[in-house]
Fold:
Amino acid sequence: MKAKNIISFALVMVLIVTMAVVVFGDVSIGSFRVPGVLDPEFGVKQGLDLVGGSVIVFEPDVEDLSTVSEEDVASAENIIRVRLTSMGETEATVSRQGDYGIRVEIPNIDDPNEAVSYIGQTAALQFMDIDGNVVMDGTETYVQSATATYGPVDEFGKQGHYVTLSLTSEGRAAFKSATEQAIARTAEGGNVIIIALDGMPYSWPTVENVIDSDSCIITGEFDKDSAKELADVINSGRLPFSLKDTELRAVGPTLGQEALETSLFAALIGVILVMIFMILVYRLPGLVADVALVAYISIVCLIMAGFFVEDGYRVTLTLPGIAGVILSIGMAVDANVVIFERIKDELNCGKSVGASVDSGFKRALTAIIDSNITTLITCAVLYFLGTGTIKGFAITLGIGVAVSLVTAIFLTKLLLKIMVGFGIKNPWVYGASKRRDA
Amino acid sequence: MMFKNPCAYRKVFLSISAVLVVVSILSMAIFGFNLGIDFTSGTTFEIEHMPEGFAYDGALEADVMAIVTGAKADASVQVQAIGADGVFIKASELTNEETELVVDGLLAYFNGEEVSLDATDATAVVEEVATDVVEEAATDAVVEGEEVEEVKGLVKAAISIDKVSATTSARLIGDTFLAVLIAIVLMLVYISIRFDFKSGVCAVIALAHDVILMFGFYSLFQLTMNTSFVAAVLTIIGYSINATIIVFDRVRENNRMLGKKATGAVKANNAITTSYTRTLYSSLTTLFTIGALFVLGVSSIQEFALPIIVGIVCGAYSSLFVAPTIWAWWKDSSK
Structure:
């Protein structure tokens, strides 16, 4: 029995220590490197309130939002992407918020106002010749629509993605003369039409022959997304609205850094206080709970760093998210407190240590499950109804509660049973009120 | 003894709660709330650390106000100190250009330059901004891995700006009410299934008690309410129910062990007295971590930690002395 206990104890401890090292250290074994959880590239993705940056929510600047179609918003979203790229903000993310909102997150930007005025302006779409002379603009006077299509792209029936451009009669006339002039300059390589957004060349398809038609196609090395993007950019010339920023949250990089550092320091102090408290109050089980707490923190960090899932599912850690994790540390030991109180009750009734541990866990279980499920219900409500930071808070608190159920119940139980198996059977050690003989 | 037989002292415990609830509601009715821009819409500027040589006083407050009204003459402005050396400015909603003017004004002010601001500057700034962007775009302005230089004065990167428009804030208020309502209904349903309907109602009463006191606390001390307060309230809804359930779990156990003959008061008393240490310890451990955040954290973290601390204290009280005592009272009087 003892040998088996020693082996399982050693296994559990090795597992926990390994996890903790993986999480908090930056381990290198030869060329094999396991980055720590705070590694900016592979660790937990840090939210903009920690690294500094701006969250801007744009909405079409119109009187009545119901006049704005879904396609218009999608088109505006793509324009924003293009503009961010041309600003050099390749790290920025763009997503939809609600029916009409477009949420833009730009890390490490010092001057959000500059970005707002640039991104929000009405799109200026122009078709130019090789010298930059505007041959026509992208307004509805000339352009009817642009659509991304999949179908045969050459006479041999090769399939591919392309963009169909439909023109008005004026557009057709302008395009005809533009293509004529372009073809005339084929020798010097001038047979292109430049499609420019905000005065910046965006795409420059080659003109193969004079086009005198209501519609033409633009082919090239497109995939589904890039074809769609070009179509959206062309359509943006007909967007009748500019974008206004309905919400702006800019955190300077220095402040973000300070927020992260102080929060982590606070977490450290809080955890140390909790650990000391548990040992003082519950003695051996308290120590076991502390070990479980280390495992708990490690697992939560690993989940948030996306260790168990594909890279795309890393949780973005925001300031309220950190608060959620720290709060959940306090709550994680709650399950242990409930269990250990029960064990103490049983011991004080005169039961043996082994029996007390067993029935303590059994009796505490319903209370722990019921109380944690209610917390999870709150997390779910927050997640589905909250936006932005509140969502981040709900995710981290939810992960925390779920993991704490595992570590506080199963891990502590396993470790305590091993302790009993070791022959440590003095009830005082397990928190009973008076020293008695076993 | 009061704490050995809490159900007998029900009136005392419930009176304390009732007084606090009445004070909270009165405060809300009379003083209202100090709503942050998340709810009222507006633009805020926050400088966590002012450069050396600047201290928050009446003169600085007036100067900062003048910077904002210089950018927008009819803007409503509030200026307050945060932390030891920080300043927080809350203004009515500013346009992008006006925001730019304020930032420039603050930079000039805190770096000791002369500033003259009037509305005619606005267009110049906008044009300058527009050309800046195009130039930067053209020259590919990606700067990677650049170390933030140690600058003595105030830099743009040290100013946090928040702007919320009226439409967004109206939506937020609606969403918040909905979230709280849905959370409460779901709790009631869950507890009614796992325990009994009376327990569910009592737990929700305790919950309402905690939430009202949190709101009352914020009203009485006129603390700024923002989205983080909403998150805190929802956290406490989960936390307070959590504590109440631990007590009701003991009641449920007593129901099985003591049978129908025992009064609700006997069962509740036993449940309360056996839960004292658990409630105390669990509240303490949570207060250790959240308290550390409050003491050491930056202002936006403190804004979140404070209501949680208030809620945890209220939750500990209500889970022991409000929910079970009302339950026993109801149970025994409906016999």
About this structure: Chain B has two domains: 10-36+167-333, 42-164. Residues 173 and 187 of chain B are 21 Å apart (CA to CA). Chain B touches chain A through 88 residues (CB under 8 Å). Residues 115-151 of chain B have pLDDT under 50 and may be disordered.
